[in-house]
Amino acid sequence: MSIYVCMVCGFDYDEAAGEPGSGIAPGTKWEDVPEDWVCPICGADKSMFTRQGGEEQKPAAPAPEPKKEAKAINTNYKLQAVMASNLACGSKKQYREELSGFMSQVADFFEARSTPQGDLDDVLDLLAQDSATGYAQAFEVARKEKDRGSQRALTWGEKVSAIQATLIKRFNKDGDAALSGNDIFVCDACGFIFVGQEAPEICPVCKVPRFKFNKISKEASA
Amino acid sequence: MKAVRNIRLCTKDCMCLYVCPTGATDTENGQIDASKCLDACRACVDACPEHAISKVPFNYPPQQAKKDNVLKALRVLLDSKLKQEQALDNIIKTSASPAQKQLAKALKMSTRLMAEDLLRESGYMLPQGAPAREFLQGLLDKEQEEGFPKEAVEQGLKLL
Ligand code: SF4
Ligand code: SF4
Question: Do B81 and B52 share a structural domain?
Answer without folding.
Answer: no
